[in-house]
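Action item from last meeting closed. Structure (371 res):
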């Protein structure tokens, strides 16, 4: 079977690279010798990392190669991740929403089947975005989404022709491999990891309040529980910068560590899995924590984060970005740390169900598209 994968690949985002690795690994595990081509912003690196064919994803180069790959393909996998949204500027053919839907249109014009694979849909707020979804998303042959909210939004947008099935984020199908690279890069021991709180912060449209809030939270936890905060930058230099902005505001700067921004998804996953607690903004930092049975507190800037936290069982201890109560969050963190085994067991049980749902994405692909 020949498959083309279209997503936010080759841009250094840990969550999206984990999505790609999980899709590729699971396709190879479940299909008979699939031939895989990935549309990537860094095609040479993507091809080398995943042992796949790769074509430049943008419109500036290799458009004939895109058409050639789609004509040869049996299926376009669009996803996973939060591709179909207009949070970022959207004009004519520019922005994520028109880009990914134009790839879908191109695939259909080439006679290729299309599956939206483990996607998180939205937000879609503009009239243009809603029109694009109603016209082009209905071209898909099958849609799987990672949460109930995404399915409901599709129906509100008038995307009803293809069947939509709720599964979970394909990263829950990720196969972890032990890799101590992150831990070995820090002056910490295995014993120290019992005190580590993994922290994920990100920039968010010019907002800065959350940097001060996180600084206050970590200072309080340092004083009350003697934790070791370690920032895990899930999107390279963007998150390294955000982490340093938090540290600048802390009283206990010398007790905090920041991981390098160039580790692999599996290496970050391994590190988060060794920590005691994760406090995260990035969706996939929280998915990594869930996958490894690590209790976590999320700071939700988007419905996709809230949806995940409800499924992992940690929403009652988490906050929306604009509603963070630093004292309550610290108290929640202390409760979790003091009852670690209870929370870890509950998260692990939920992760087991989410993993089954993630693997179902590939089962459905095989059921609908493999003859």
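Sequence:
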């Amino acid at each position: 079977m020949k498959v083309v994968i279209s997503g936010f690949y080759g841009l250094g985002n840990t969550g999206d690279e984990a999505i790609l690795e999980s899709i590729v690994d699971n396709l190879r595990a479940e299909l008979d010798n699939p031939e895989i081509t990935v549309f990537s912003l860094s095609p040479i690196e993507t091809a080398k990392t995943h042992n796949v064919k790769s074509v430049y994803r943008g419109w500036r180069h290799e458009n004939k190669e895109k058409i050639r790959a789609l004509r040869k393909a049996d299926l376009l996998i669009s996803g996973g991740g939060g591709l179909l949204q207009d949070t970022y500027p959207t004009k004519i053919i520019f922005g994520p929403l028109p880009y990914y839907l134009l790839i879908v249109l191109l695939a259909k014009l080439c006679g290729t089947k299309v599956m939206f694979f483990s996607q998180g849909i939205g937000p879609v707020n503009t009239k243009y975005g809603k029109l694009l979804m109603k016209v082009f998303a209905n071209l898909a042959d099958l849609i799987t989404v990672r949460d109930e909210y995404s399915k409901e939004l599709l129906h509100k947008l008038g995307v009803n022709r293809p069947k939509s099935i709720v599964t979970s984020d394909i990263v829950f199908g990720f196969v972890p491999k032990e890799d101590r690279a992150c831990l070995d890069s820090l002056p910490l021991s295995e014993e120290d990891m019992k005190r580590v709180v993994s922290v994920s912060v990100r920039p968010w449209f010019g907002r800065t309040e959350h940097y001060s809030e996180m600084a206050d939270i970590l200072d309080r936890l340092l004083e009350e529980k003697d934790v070791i905060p370690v920032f895990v930058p899930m999107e390279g230099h963007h998150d390294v910068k955000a982490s340093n902005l938090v540290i600048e505001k802390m009283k206990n700067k010398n007790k905090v560590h920041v991981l390098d921004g160039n580790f692999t998804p599996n290496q970050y996953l391994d590190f988060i899995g060794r920590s005691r607690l994760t406090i995260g903004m990035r969706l996939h930092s929280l998915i990594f924590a869930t996958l490894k049975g690590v209790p976590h507190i999320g700071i939700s800037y988007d419905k996709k984060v809230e949806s995940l936290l409800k499924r992992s069982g940690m929403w009652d201890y988490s906050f929306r970005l604009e509603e963070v109560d630093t004292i309550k969050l610290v108290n929640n963190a202390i409760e979790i740390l003091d009852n670690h085994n209870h929370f870890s067991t509950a998260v692990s049980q939920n992760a087991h169900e989410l993993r089954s749902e993630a693997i179902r994405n590939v089962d459905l692909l095989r059921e609908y598209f493999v003859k």
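Note appended to the action item: The chain has a mean pLDDT of 96.
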